[in-house]
Write a structure and sequence with these properties.
Strand order of the largest sheet: 6-7-4-10
Radius of gyration: 36 Å
């Protein structure tokens, strides 16, 4: 059928197409652009399964000629025997498992290839087969990735088979869900009741924590010299043990005053979530006193020192 998939007159085509397919008639749909474009979903519904090999959308002259040649080659042969299909996935993926196909048998040859063998297909009547397998992304880059590197098909009759080229969208970001979904509490309202009073129990504050903001003064900084500053924070438990809570390193710009002077560094911030509390109290509340230690390291970045690059001998 040459069609845009849009019905403009007559009875609904879908039941007619279904009846024809039930009688063993194979339907190919060639989608042509109409006044409202091409309804690909309708073409897939009317055509025989699988739609990937029975539907062609807006082919050009060369594609149409190739399609007719393939149709003629397939229609003139009575099915296929001793079918062997080798599928190789790209290096971005590994095959993890293979489901039992609807016809024949499939085996994994290695981490990136499989072989599907079918003794015969469509010899007596129109027949299709499908195979489902699962892959895992093992690449290092995100984006839209083709799954198949190659698909090779052979049978004793020399039939031609076309296969889709599926792609998957890959995101390599590390995803963290810090808050779990709350556990629901079931309740119901009796029929003909206008209201209901239910005690839903307790709920707690989530994602609690504190922000420590510190100022520090760097003493006697010479003019024209940047300073590298490190702030190191630890938390102390009841036994005096220290637990790391963060480290920040920053560059303090040089000042232009004529002599050395003190430099005040303000608003150095650390986030200390409550689930890291080692005070011994409950981590579900902010009622505990938490004890910390802060350490600072500072040194000049710029220097007028120059190491000797050569040795003079007299």
């Amino acid at each position: 059928m040459f069609t845009d998939g849009n019905t403009t007159t007559g009875a609904p085509p879908a039941p007619v197409a279904a009846s024809a397919k039930a009688q063993g008639i194979i339907i190919y749909c060639i989608g042509l652009v109409g006044s409202s474009g091409v309804d690909v979903n309708t073409l897939n519904t009317w055509a025989s399964a699988p739609s990937a090999s029975h539907v062609a959308v807006t082919p050009d002259a060369a594609e149409l000629e190739e399609l007719f040649a393939e149709l003629a080659a397939n229609i003139s042969k009575t099915g296929a025997t001793n079918i062997v299909l080798d599928d190789v996935v790209t290096n971005d993926f590994n095959i993890t498992s293979i489901q039992t196909p609807t016809a024949g048998s499939a085996t994994m040859l290695n981490a990136t290839s499989l072989r599907w063998s079918i003794p015969e297909l469509g010899v007596i009547a129109s027949e299709s087969a499908s195979l489902e397998f699962f892959v895992r992304h093992v690449g290092t880059t995100p984006g839209t990735k083709p799954v198949n590197a190659s698909i090779t098909y052979t049978d004793d009759e020399g039939n031609v088979a076309n296969f889709p080229s599926p792609t998957v969208s890959v995101e390599c970001d590390v995803v963290v869900n810090p808050e779990e979904c709350p556990t629901p509490v079931n309740l119901s309202i009796d029929g003909c009741s206008d209201s209901v009073l239910v005690d839903m129990g307790d709920t707690y504050l989530e994602s609690l924590g504190r922000i420590i903001q510190m100022d520090v003064t760097i003493k006697n900084v010479c003019p024209g010299k940047r300073v590298a500053l490190a702030a190191i924070l630890s938390e102390v438990d009841e036994d005096g043990m220290e637990y790391p809570r963060g480290m920040k390193a920053m560059t303090i710009p040089a000042h232009n005053f004529p002599t050395c002077r003190d430099v005040l560094v303000k608003c150095i911030k650390f986030v200390v979530p409550e689930d890291l509390d080692v005070s011994g109290g409950s981590t579900a509340a902010m009622c505990n006193q938490r004890n910390f230690k802060a350490r600072f390291i500072a040194h000049n970045v710029d220097t007028d020192f120059s190491c000797c690059e050569s040795v003079l001998t007299f």
